[in-house]
Specification:
- The complex is a heterodimer.
- By secondary structure, chain A is of the alpha+beta class.
- Chain A folds into three domains: 193 residues, Aldehyde oxidase/xanthine dehydrogenase, molybdopterin binding domain (Aldehyde Oxidoreductase, domain 4), CATH 3.30.365.10; 306 residues, Aldehyde oxidase/xanthine dehydrogenase, molybdopterin binding domain (Aldehyde Oxidoreductase, domain 4, 2-Layer Sandwich); 159 residues, Aldehyde oxidase/xanthine dehydrogenase, molybdopterin binding domain (Aldehyde Oxidoreductase, domain 4), CATH 3.30.365.10.
- Chain A has 15 helices and 35 strands.
- In chain A, α7 packs parallel to α15.
- The longest helix of chain A is centred in the last third of the chain and has 26 residues.
- Chain B is of the alpha+beta class.
- In chain B, α11 packs antiparallel against α12.
- Among the domains of chain B are: 45 residues, Uridine Diphospho-n-acetylenolpyruvylglucosamine Reductase, domain 2; 107 residues, Enolase-like, domain 1.
- Chains A and B meet through α3 and β33 of A and α13 of B.
- The complex binds flavin-adenine dinucleotide and iron/sulfur cluster.
- The site of iron/sulfur cluster (SF4) has 14 residues of chain B, from loops.
Chain lengths: 765, 327
């Protein structure tokens, strides 16, 4: 549980910072920068023991034997866990809540399907002792041949995923007869979330009650998994996750390392702490799957698209299934009468890939947004103009109206600020000494995912307001915007709101992923706060002890923590005074975004699985956020080094609950997109099937020196089809389209079309 | 990392004696050593901390040259006014190395002694074959991921690249390494891998770097360090060049030229063939580009590092021409 008292932000917050839509600074900022914020594994517990995982050194085969003799004799040793000694668990349901097969689950493997898979664990009195003992564990294997990656001849064509097929018209026929035709293949490598805070947890059992301190993007979902593993009631598991040092999609699920720690704690009857090493953060869970796409476009001579044929694959693991929806942007960005998209997944010896900022949309946009640029050059029209010529006035796939689509406005605003009209169209036509200059544009989009959340709002005796929810803040600003929402709705200063998040004992919330939390939780808090306000005003009007009772008013105004009549002709009392006069020590209301009359079972399912999430095309509308990126690169003509020198992005996330926080999320997404375009790639040793750059010195993410000033422009308007307060998604949108904008700019600079990310220097010299 | 004992040396002699014992290692800034201990490459039994020794962190610069104590911090040397004016390549090499935090911790002695970034060398848990770590065990890198490996100076036993920047500038300007009484030219201090890649330096047990000395020269005064890499900062070189130049009185004819390469060889690599081809010549772009190709004479790639062979001559030429422009 974490408490944040809102303090006023800096001067730039402005006078209206505290209301919804105000630029209030992050309320959790001071605690984080002063080090006062205590992260999950920093809890100090009596009797804490330390666990360290041993990973397989082969990518495929069987464990023959685990020799633990030396480890067992090591100082401080408490326990060696192997598949033979660890307690047996039950298989948990997946995140859709699909009933699992009735078979035991062992988080330590005998059958190896990827390098780094956990085969044993050591628990010792100190962390150092556990590390030293783990190095003494000797594992022998029977190694079998490895399918390294998508390009491995043994990988084959993979498994068709019929649910990904999207088709209308006659795409092949229209392509064959189109006067202009382009076809190209686009590849993205394995990419990793690389959060600053590695994954880890502390697990403690008290009888059959389990408490887990663990960074989590989804407390209720992870608590369910632990409960199912250990066959205890959901209520017996408490997950605590006050702060999260970066998740980017990777901290939404309970993973095998968590199971190992919880087993160890149970077997030892002591709290156990387990934190992944940095290399394990590259093998302990999946990054973004490597992808391959072929995009084929047939068009008129004037660039009007007649047909898009899209074929794609992504990699998954040998026994897990990850589908990265690669046709998600392809099928909606441009209007086309004929369309076909099909996708396969290919099994390789890797950990099962996972969610990473805008899974699906991100690589999908890389394909279509590069391809449309290629088409623009093929027909000889401006890359911005061709996008407008093929503008989709409605969702071409769902055939529904957009709820809102400010993409035309984004193109216009971005082009204007960037100075796009001054672009000289020829590749290699702009330079500064040895630096070739290129300007590129690309669009991005992300669907509005909607799910459910609930919150409690309490108005306390001293007039302050308390908000509780099991949702989380991984830096995106939940603490801040929920304080703003409660403050504005009840009519108090944001200073007087305390927000408590990150504890599964609080009212529940669905997953923080898919950019849905802000829309869901502002809605829930708004509803709870509104009904708390109604109760307050009801008491003020109706309670005979209230100073307002004689007024016979039918409404009152609450502002700045004080209650008055609308015309100001009656008493003016503070909330605290009113509560005292009517003899109440608090008012409490719960609000949620669930359909009315939901059963407890439906509620449980809503918060602990993603099965009930509303499709973004539900009802009459198709709901998405949109953006347009305008990017300048400088490419050294001799060295092939690419530097991004200017970014202007215009984005439509609907209404912004806090523009300052939205802007910093957009910028974060753009920075991550720059890394994806130019630096990030998991490099695999083909003989061992193992990623070799599994650390932050070798897996490169951008430094400050790689990032120019980034200008972001909000072009959104409130979209009430998307959320209660009119916002759409923020967190994932901005990364979508950055990599293609850079690739397109690199083409403009150099005349070379790089279709494989990242665009490293050897591809350009 | 396994347990080790810690000993704070009170004098250079005490440090040398303690470090001569089996399993003992000198500890300076710790930015290489602690890292290697964490990945299980270094397994010291005793760490001999030398950071408190007096008199080893001075930076003295005069007409004859510069003497830099082994404990001077990378950041201090980079920022030293006389180093900047008389040895710009040295300052620039340091500025472009590592990160500000590391430069504040790391020492000049430790910097020379930093180990290769070969990912196989650094991961004994997963790759047992590495001749540098375990003589005779083989080389995991050959046939593996080689994007960062050396194209010059490699052997069948080891193709690991020397990653440092400072030493490249030192080799260009004929610096010497002081090991107490003994002094060795930097070029001889770094050894080629040959059949003994485990031996990287001409330093004996019980010896310690006390200082480096760089002779002053006109070419050192007019010098630069050009470092090319995908990431703008905080990355080892894809290729780099330390170059110094001196012109005849006409301002065009090259009297002295120093060229050394980083990021491409198994040790800091002096490109004497380029120097010889250009000394006495008038500085012209085409002549410089043609001569720069000599920098990769004898280079051998291992697939993914082929780009270095293309890149190096361009880096060398750009650096020489840049110095010419400031005439
Ligand atoms: C992420 C990262 C990025 C980096 N990037 C770069 C880069 O771009 N360019 C670059 O040049 N460097 C780079 N470095 C390397 C860095 O410069 C070295 O780690 C640093 O200079 C080592 O100095 P230290 O004082 O910390 O040495 P330590 O770690 O204390 O010691 C290193 C080794 O030298 C020995 N040693 C130390 N002092 C002496 C002495 N006086 N005599 C004999 N032996 C001694 C130690 O026993 C040990 O074996 C990077 C390092 C890291 C971790
Ligand atoms: S290149 Fe050298 S350091 Fe790298 S694995 Fe081979 S022997 Fe070891």
């Amino acid at each position: 549980m974490t408490v944040h008292n809102i303090r006023h932000g800096d001067a730039s917050d402005g006078a209206f910072a505290e209301a919804v839509g105000g630029r209030l600074s992050r309320v959790d900022g001071p605690a984080k920068i002063t080090g006062a914020a205590k992260y999950a594994v920093e809890q100090q517990l009596e009797g804490l023991a330390y666990a360290v995982l041993v990973g397989s050194t082969i990518a495929s085969g069987k464990v023959l034997a685990i020799d633990t003799k030396a480890a067992e004799a090591a100082p401080g040793m408490l326990q060696v866990l192997t598949p033979d000694t660890i307690i047996s668990l039950r298989t948990a349901a997946d995140w859709f809540g699909t009933p699992p097969p009735d078979k035991p689950y062992c988080p330590l493997a005998r059958d190896i399907t990827f390098s780094g898979q956990y085969v044993a664990a050591i628990v010792a009195e100190t962390f150092e002792q556990a590390v030293a003992a783990a190095a003494l564990v000797k594992v022998s294997y029977d190694e079998t041949s490895t399918i390294v990656d998508l390009s491995d001849a043994k990988a084959g064509d993979g498994i068709p995923i019929d649910a990904m097929t999207k088709e209308w018209g006659d795409a092949q026929g229209a392509f064959a007869s189109a006067p202009v035709r382009i076809c190209a293949a686009y590849n993205t490598p394995r990419e990793y979330q690389a959060p600053m805070e590695p994954h880890g947890l502390i697990a403690r059992w008290e009888g059959d009650k389990l408490t887990v301190w663990e960074p989590s993007q989804w407390l209720d979902g992870m608590a369910r998994t632990y409960a199912e593993w250990f066959d205890v009631p959901f209520e017996n598991v408490r997950l605590v996750s006050p702060y999260i040092g970066g998740g980017f999609g990777s901290k939404a699920l309970a993973l095998s390392h968590g199971a190992v720690a919880a087993c160890a704690a149970k077997m030892l009857s002591r709290p156990v702490r387990l934190v992944m090493t940095r290399p394990q953060t590259f093998t302990g869970y999946g990054g973004r799957a490597a992808t391959r796409q072929t995009v084929t476009i047939g068009a008129d001579a004037d660039g009007k698209i007649q047909s898009i044929v899209h074929r794609s694959v992504n990699e998954t693991s040998i026994d897990g299934m990850w589908v990265e929806p690669l046709g998600s942007v392809t099928s909606i960005m441009y209007s086309t009468p004929n369309f076909s998209s099909k996708q396969n997944v290919v099994r390789v010896n890797s950990v099962v890939p996972g969610a990473m900022r805008a899974p699906g949309e991100n690589p999908s946009a890389f394909g279509i947004e590069c391809a449309i640029d290629e088409l623009a050059y093929e027909v000889g029209i401006d890359p911005l103009e061709i996008r407008l010529r093929n503008y989709a006035e409605q969702d071409p796939h769902a055939k529904k109206a957009w709820s809102t689509r400010q993409l035309r406005e984004a193109f216009a605003a971005g082009a204007e600020r960037f100075g796009w009209a001054r672009r000289s169209p020829e590749p290699r036509s702009m330079r500064d000494g040895n630096q070739l200059i290129g300007w590129g544009v690309a669009a991005g989009t992300y669907p509005v995912r909607r799910a459910y959340g609930e919150a409690i709002v309490r108005i306390l005796a001293d007039g302050s307001v308390e908000v509780e929810s099991s949702s989380i803040d991984m830096g995106q600003g939940t603490y801040t915007i929920l304080a703003q929402t409660a403050a504005e709705t009840v009519g108090v200063r944001a200073d007087d709101v305390v927000v408590k998040l990150g504890d599964s004992r609080f009212p529940r919330a669905g997953v923080t992923g898919g950019s849905r939390l802000a829309g869901v939780m502002t809605g829930a808090v708004y509803k709870a706060a509104s009904s708390a306000l109604d109760q307050l005003v009801g008491l003020a009007i109706g309670d005979p002890r209230s100073p307002f009772h004689p007024l016979q008013a039918n409404t009152l105004v609450v502002a700045n923590g004080r209650i008055a009549s609308p015309r100001g002709d009656g008493p003016d009392v503070s909330i605290a005074e009113l509560l005292k006069s009517v003899g109440r020590d608090h008012i409490e209301a719960t609000g949620d975004t669930m359909p009315e009359n939901s059963t407890p079972e439906e509620r449980y399912k809503n918060y602990t699985t993603i099965a009930m999430a509303l499709p973004h095309t539900e009802g009459d509308y198709s709901r998405h956020s949109w953006c347009a990126h305008f990017i300048e690169v400088r490419v050294d003509e001799d060295f092939g080094t690419v530097r991004v020198s200017r970014v202007v992005s215009a984005l439509d996330s609907g209404r912004l609950y806090n523009p300052k926080l939205a802007e910093s999320q957009w910028k974060g997404g753009i920075i991550m997109g720059i890394g994806q375009a130019l630096l990030e790639e998991g490099i695999v040793d083909r003989r061992h099937g193992r990623i070799v750059n599994d650390n932050l010195a070798d897996y490169l993410v951008p430094t400050n020196a790689d990032i120019p000033d980034i200008e972001v422009i909000s072009v959104g308007i409130p979209d009430l089809h998307s959320s209660v307060l009119g916002g759409k998604g923020v967190g994932e949108l901005a990364i979508v389209g950055v990599a293609p904008a850079i690739a397109n700019a690199v083409f403009h600079a150099t005349g070379k079309r790089i279709r494989d990310l990242p665009i490293t220097l050897e591809k350009l010299i | 990392m396994r347990d080790f004992s810690y000993f704070r040396a009170s004098s250079v002699d005490a440090a040398r004696q303690a470090a001569a014992l089996p399993g003992a290692m000198l500890l300076a800034g710790g930015t290489t050593l602690i890292d290697l201990a964490k990945c299980g490459v270094a397994e010291p039994e005793t760490l001999v901390d030398i950071t408190h020794l007096n008199g080893l962190n001075s930076i003295e610069v005069n007409e004859r040259g510069a003497t830099i104590g082994a404990l001077a911090r990378m950041g201090h040397v980079a920022d030293h006014a006389d180093i900047k004016s008389r040895f710009p390549a040295v300052s620039e090499a340091l500025w472009q190395a590592a990160s500000a935090q590391i430069r504040n911790m790391a020492t000049i002695g430790g910097n020379l002694m930093q180990r290769t970034r070969c990912p196989y060398f650094r991961d004994p848990g997963n790759f047992s074959a590495c001749n540098k770590r375990e003589p005779g065990s083989g080389c995991s890198a050959i046939g593996g991921v080689t994007r960062g490996h050396a194209v010059l100076g490699a052997s069948d036993a080891c193709i690991a690249m020397y990653p440092g920047d400072l030493a490249v500038a030192l080799v260009a300007f004929d610096a010497t390494v002081h090991l107490g009484e003994r002094q060795i030219p930097v070029d001889d201090f770094f050894l080629l891998p040959g059949t003994t890649p485990d031996r990287e330096h001409a330093i004996e047990p019980g010896e310690m770097i006390t200082a480096i000395e760089i002779p002053g020269s006109s070419s050192a005064r007019r010098s630069t360090y050009l470092k090319i890499r995908d990431r703008q900062s905080y990355e080892f070189a894809a290729a780099s060049a330390a170059v110094g130049i001196e012109f005849e009185a006409d301002g065009r004819t090259i009297r002295d030229l120093r060229v050394a390469l980083g990021g491409v060889a198994t040790k800091p690599w002096r490109a004497r063939a380029v120097e010889a081809a250009l000394i006495g010549k008038v500085l012209e772009p085409d002549t410089v580009r043609a001569a720069s190709l000599l920098a990769v004479e004898g280079a051998v790639d291992h697939g993914a590092n082929h780009y270095k062979i293309e890149l190096v001559p361009r880096v060398v030429a750009r650096a020489i021409l840049k110095l010419g422009e400031t005439a």
